[in-house]
Amino acid sequence: NIDFYKIEMNNCKINESRCIQSKFIKGYFTNIEFENCDFSNLECFGASFHRVHFKQCKLTGTNFAESYFRDCTFEDCVANFASFSNTNLRTMLFRQCQLNDSEFYEMDWKHLTLQENQLNNSNWFHTKLATLDFRTNQFQKIALSFEQLRGLTVDQEQALVIAAGLGLVID
After folding, report:
1. N or C: which end of the chain has fewer CB within 10 A?
2. Listing from the earlier edge strand, what are the strands of the sheet with 68-75?
3. How many beta carbons lie within 10 A of that of residue 157, not counting itself?
4. Which tens digits make up the pLDDT trace of 12-47?
5. Alpha-carbon distance 36 to 134, whole Å?
6. Using 50, 70 and 90 to split pLDDT, how confident is the model at 1?
7. Which helix (H) or strand (E) holds 164?
8. How many CB atoms neighbour CB 22 within 10 A?
9. What distances in angstroms separate CA 20 from CA 32, 51, 58, 164, 165, one per listed residue?
10. Contacts 24+ apart (CB under 8 A), 67-72
């Protein structure tokens, strides 16, 4: 339970670190690889991440709200209940992550790639979805804004889930 304000980390690789229920408020992280780290319930409110790779990390309940991400990757991470609300993303990849019940509310993004993730019960309200591709991801329920659906790429099964979530009756 350590609280840091404006911590700065550069050019390092951190393995098997554990920092649970701590705060990195307005931290600045650049050229970092986090591998097998446990950052559950970490508060990273308003942080900046540049060229950061999270690999096989536990990020359950981590709050990245109002943070900035540039050229970042989340790979094989457990990030259920994580919050990316009001974040600014530029060139971001989520690959093979568990993102169930996570918040992607009011994100501003360019070049967001989602590959083979679990997105069940995730919230994408007020986030533009044009050019986003959900086809390799899985969800049985998802929250999306009707007015933001134009241009979202989904498969047939996902389209049925989204339609049911919007209240359509499919006969």
Report:
1. C
2. 8-15, 28-35, 48-55, 68-75, 88-95, 108-115
3. 12
4. 999 999 987 788 889 999 999 999 999 999 999 999
5. 26
6. low
7. helix 156-165
8. 15
9. 19, 23, 10, 37, 34
10. none
The rounded Cα 95 to chain-centroid distance in angstroms is 10
Which residues lie closer than 8 Å to 142 by C-beta, 6 or more apart? 119, 120, 121, 122, 124, 161, 162, 165
Residues near 89 by beta carbon (within 8 Å), at least 6 away in sequence: 69, 72, 107, 108, 109, 110, 112
Token code pair at residue 158? 């996902």
* Residue among 41, 24, 40, 20 at smallest CA distance from 32: 24
- For the record, the structure tokens of 16 come out as 């098997």
Output the pTM of the full model: 0.94
Q: How far apart are CA 75 and CA 23, in angstroms?
A: 22
In this predicted structure, which of 1-15, 40-54, 113-127 has the lowest mean pLDDT? 1-15
> Closest Cα to residue 80, out of 127, 123, 45, 44?
123
Q: At residue 164, what are phi and psi to the nearest 5 degrees?
A: -65, -40
Query: What are 38's two structure tokens?
Result: 């446990």
**Contact call for residues 105 and 120 (beta carbons, < 8 A):** no
Residue 143 above 70 pLDDT? yes
